[in-house]
């Protein structure tokens, strides 16, 4: 049996409602890795690996903390390739076709860059949107 990131398969909560020590340490390790990725450092956002979001929602890192505390991380998400890990880093730790995962990771990185580009463009133009909106409102009055 492979014990790599076994905390993902273990109990999350004690009977008192608190996270187990192993699970809390694992979540902290995950967030340390994820928050140090360039896209998160620039935007404060990342893909959420909770079972509900399934690495499909790109949301604020603080929301990710809440999601993974409440719902956990998908137990099958052992190599955090949406959060910067590469297959070669943990060779033999998961099954599947590595080239497909790497290709999917590259596609996700391109999606993140596209989303970030839209966010940057929106943020840069936000002042002009507000100015135009104020002009329209004053003309209507």
Describe the protein:
With 141 residues, the protein is mainly alpha-helical. It has one domain (6-140). The protein is 53% helix and 4% strand. The chain is built from four helices and two strands, in the order ααββαα. The chain has helices at 21-35, 38-43, 61-71, 98-140; strands spanning 45-47, 58-60. The chain has a two-stranded antiparallel sheet with strand order 1-2. Helix 1 runs antiparallel to helix 3 (61-71). Residues 6-85 form the Transposase-associated domain. InterPro entries: Transpos_assoc. This is Transposase-associated domain-containing protein.
Widest beta sheet: strand line-up: 1-2
Rough shape?
Answer: elongated
Please state the average pLDDT score.
Answer: 76
Rg for CA atoms: 19 Å
Element-level helix/strand string: HHEEHH
Strand content: under 5%
Domains (count): 1
What structural class is derived from the secondary structure elements?
mainly alpha
Query: What is the number of helical segments per DSSP (H or I, 4+ residues)?
Result: 4
Please give the share of residues in helix.
40-55%
Largest sheet: 2 strands, antiparallel
- Unreliable spans are 88-106
Q: How far is it from the N-terminal to the C-terminal residue, by CA?
A: 72 Å
Number of strands: 2
